[in-house]
Amino acid sequence: MRKCIKFEAYVPGKNIEEVKEAYGLEKVVKLASNENPYGASPKAIEVVRNFTELHRYPNPEYRELRRKLEEYTGWNAERIVIGAGIDGILETLFKILIDEGDEVVIPVPTFQYYGILARLHCAREVLVQRDENFQITERIFEFLNPRTKLVIIPFPNNPTGNTEDLRLVEEIAESTKGIVFIDEAYVEFADSRVDLDLDNIVIARTMSKAFGLANLRIGYARLPEWLVNYYRSASTPFPVSTLAEKTAIASLEDIEWMKDCVEKIKRERERLFKELKKLTIAYPSQANFIFFKSKEGLAEDMMRKGVIIRDCKSFGVSGYRVTVGKPEENEFFLEKLKEVL
To answer: What is the CATH code for 42-254?
Structure first.
C-alpha cells in the first residue's frame, strides 16, 4: 500500500430490507438517499424493458447522449464528458490533477466523499468552515495559494441544501489557478445555477436525482476545452453502459416528466419545511431534501418507527437530512416524528 494513503469507506444510508429485518417492521419508508420518489420517465423504463444487447460493449464516445445533453444544457457537446455519476467524473479529475501533497479546498460540512477522494490520493485536505447558515464566506480566500489544485463547491450543498453567492463563486475561480469543481447534482431543484465559463471551472451534473436514474450512474460535466482530451485519456474505457446511455437519451426526450416530478417535489418541500419548523430547527433548501436539527439519536428512533432518514454526523455536522418524498410518505414521516418527539 502507498504509505500516504488513508482508507475510509463511504457509508450509504440504510436500505428498506435491512431496517425491516432489524426491527421486525412491515412498512418502512426510505427518505435518506435523495432519490426521486416518482421514478424514471415511462419512456426510459420502456428502453430498459426492451434492451437486449447485454453482450456488446458500449460506444465510448457517447455521441448521441452528448448531443442530447447539449440541447438540454446549452453546453457545447465537444466539451461534455460522461462518467459513472458525478463521483466517477471527480475520480477521473483526481487521477489527472492530484500529486501527493497537493491541496484540495473543501468547504464543510458537505458530502463526505470529497474528503475520502482527497485522502485516497494523498492530497492535503483544506477544510474551510461555512457560516452559521452553511454559506461559504470570504474566509475561503485565506486558504487559496499556489498549492491549491482543486476547490470543490457543491451547488446546492449536500446535506444542508443551500446555494452560494454567485459573485463569490466567480471571485473564487478568479483567485486560483486550481480547478474549481462545481457539483450541481441537485440543480434542477434550485432557483439558480452557476453560469460561468472560465478556463478553470468544471460544472458537473447527474441524472440520478431529478431524472430518477440513480441506479444507472449517469454523470456528465462541462470541462474547459484544454482539459477534455486529458480527461478522456484518463477515464475508464467504458464508464457508462449502453443501457444507461439509451435510458438517459429517452429521459432527455421526455423533459416534461422530469419537470413535473421536480415541481411536485418542490411543492412538497415547502409544505414539509413549514411543518418541520414547528417541530425542529429546519433550514431552507434548494434541493430535494431538508436539513434539520433535533434531539440526539433521532435517526435510530425513527428507524424503529419505520422511517429511514440520514444522520449527518458523517458529513461533519450535527443534524439530520430528510428526502422529500411523495405526500403520503412525508405524512408518514411527520406522524412518526411527532410520536418520537
So the answer is: 3.40.640.10
Model confidence, pTM: 0.95
Joined together, the cell numbers standing for residue 295 give 434531539
**Nearest C-alpha neighbor of 133 from the set 151, 152, 109:** 109
Residue 44 near residue 68, CB atoms below 8 Å: no
5: pLDDT strictly greater than 90: no
pLDDT tens, residue by residue, 159-185: 999 999 999 999 999 999 999 999 999
Q: How far is the C-alpha of 155 from the C-alpha of 328, rounded, in Å? A: 28
One-character DSSP codes across 21-51: HHHT-S--EE-SS---TT-S-HHHHHHHHH-
Report how far residue 270's alpha carbon sits from residue 327's, in angstroms, rounded to the nearest whole number: 12
- DSSP string over 125-162: EEEEE--TTS---GGGGGG--TTEEEEEEESS-TTT--
Q: How far apart are CA 43 and CA 247, in angstroms?
A: 8
The three cell numbers locating residue 145: 495559494
Extract the C-alpha cell encoding 105. Answer: 479546498
CATH number attached to the domain at 16-40+256-340: 3.90.1150.10
